[in-house]
């Protein structure tokens, strides 16, 4: 097949299934209920002013891989801050959450290893498993009994890993880490928690392990992103000194890529400090999410609330999800329709996320329009 034909054919197929996607630039007058900027730090004025004061001493680019000459004082400061915040021995900041998962799983696994993975884990985890030489075992969503029966029944001479989102990106529900850690301990496995959506939200903002009162230890690895509640860009992996030392030497998405811009790391550090100091942001967003949930319930919408800012209004059909999205947009409200392959077939939805920046008035307007639809 001609290359052009290939491109056209696939796009047409995508369109015919109502799965066509386009990037959108939201104009400022549109109310956004589709951002991961839960704490409203993405355009924080204090951080902007600090950046202006410090811009003279920050390089624009890092200049090289962090292993060559791209490691700058601001990144070290950021890593120390995060390690302290998460109470782990050490931390490494990497390019993005996607790069963190892909590079981590590839680096720490070898043939004969097993990776037990929740069926609704994020795509970057799935891609990381694909790039690793380990064998994957998928367990049912949040189902630690299914996990245990699988880990019990498969024997290996290699290592075992259990990986789960802390807060699931499309559902907003929380992994039962207490139960999962018990299983990891019992079967000598390493637990990896991807807290992209837990960071700044669960466990007093310190993440989903803290939510369950679990202290960091040798067989736990925590991944988080700086692009969601932190409102910046980049990601981190927290664990033992030994682990981070190993990753510096083995993680291909650290070694063979340029370090983050010192400016970006400065923004991450300043926003992270605000996240840790200004508890009201988290408390406010969770209150607003609960308010929206109560409102949706009262107009007869079947939906779950997990004390996170993510509310998943599952409408099943792609067509219906798109229709609701478009009607909301006509009323200056944006909620993206999330469709396969981001979510499983038959579970297309409006993924509503609440931000500290959304007002109660905006939530009321959203409820009013949804009730009319
Ligand atoms: C968003 C997300 C990532 C990717 O993080 P980026 O920094 O945006 O690349 C990884 N894991 C989960 C669970 C996510 O939701």
Q: Concise description?
A:
The protein is of the alpha/beta class and 373 residues long. The chain is built from 14 helices and 12 strands. It folds into 2 domains: 18-39 and 279-372, Aspartate Aminotransferase, domain 1; 45-277, 3-Layer(aba) Sandwich (Aspartate Aminotransferase, domain 2), CATH 3.40.640.
Characterise this structure.
- The chain has 373 residues and is an alpha/beta fold.
- It has 2 domains: 18-39 and 279-372, Aspartate Aminotransferase, domain 1; 45-277, Type I PLP-dependent aspartate aminotransferase-like (Major domain) (Aspartate Aminotransferase, domain 2, 3-Layer(aba) Sandwich), CATH 3.40.640.10.
- It contains 14 helices and 12 strands.
- Strands 2-8-7-6-5-3-4 form a 7-stranded mixed sheet, sandwiched between helices. Strands 9-12-11 form a 3-stranded antiparallel sheet. A two-stranded parallel ribbon has the order 1-10.
- The longest helix has 20 residues, at 279-298.
- The model has no long low-confidence stretch (mean pLDDT 97).
- It binds pyridoxal-5'-phosphate (PLP).
- Residues 96-98, 101, 122, 124, 165, 169, 194, 196-197, 225, 227, 235 line the site of pyridoxal-5'-phosphate.
């Amino acid at each position: 097949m001609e290359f052009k034909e290939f491109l056209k054919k696939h796009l047409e197929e995508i369109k015919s299934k109502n799965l066509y996607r386009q990037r959108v630039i939201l104009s400022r007058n549109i109310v956004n209920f589709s951002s991961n900027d839960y704490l409203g730090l993405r355009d924080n004025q204090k951080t902007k002013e600090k950046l202006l004061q410090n811009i003279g001493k920050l390089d624009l680019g890092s200049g090289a891989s962090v292993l060559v000459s791209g490691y700058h004082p601001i990144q070290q400061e950021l890593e120390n801050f995060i390690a302290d915040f998460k109470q782990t021995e050490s931390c490494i900041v990497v390019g993005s959450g996607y790069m963190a998962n892909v590079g981590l799983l590839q680096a720490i696994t070898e043939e004969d290893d097993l990776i037990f993975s929740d069926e609704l884990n994020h795509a970057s985890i799935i891609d990381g498993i694909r790039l690793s030489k380990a064998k994957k075992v998928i367990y049912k969503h949040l189902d630690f009994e299914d996990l245990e029966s699988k880990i019990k029944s498969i024997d290996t001479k290699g290592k075992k890993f259990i990986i789960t989102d802390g807060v699931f990106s499309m559902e907003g529900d929380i992994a039962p880490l207490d139960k999962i850690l018990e299983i990891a301990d019992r079967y000598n496995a390493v637990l990896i928690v991807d807290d992209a959506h837990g960071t700044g939200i669960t466990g007093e903002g310190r993440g989903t392990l803290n939510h369950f009162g679990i202290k960091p230890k040798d067989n736990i690895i925590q991944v988080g992103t700086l692009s969601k509640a932190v409102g910046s860009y980049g990601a981190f992996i927290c664990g033992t000194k030994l682990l981070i030392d190993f990753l510096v030497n083995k993680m291909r998405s650290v070694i063979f890529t340029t370090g983050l811009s010192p400016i970006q790391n400065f923004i991450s550090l300043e926003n992270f400090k605000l996240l840790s100091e200004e508890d009201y942001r988290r408390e406010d967003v969770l209150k607003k999410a609960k308010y929206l949930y109560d409102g949706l319930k009262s107009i007869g919408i079947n939906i779950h609330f997990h004390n996170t800012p993510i509310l998943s209004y599952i409408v099943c059909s792609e067509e219906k999800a798109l229709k609701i999205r478009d009607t909301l947009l006509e009323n200056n409200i944006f909620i993206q329709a999330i469709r396969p392959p981001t979510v499983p077939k038959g579970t297309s939805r409006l993924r509503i996320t609440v931000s500290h920046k959304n007002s109660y008035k905006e939530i009321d307007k959203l409820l009013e329009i949804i009730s009319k639809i």
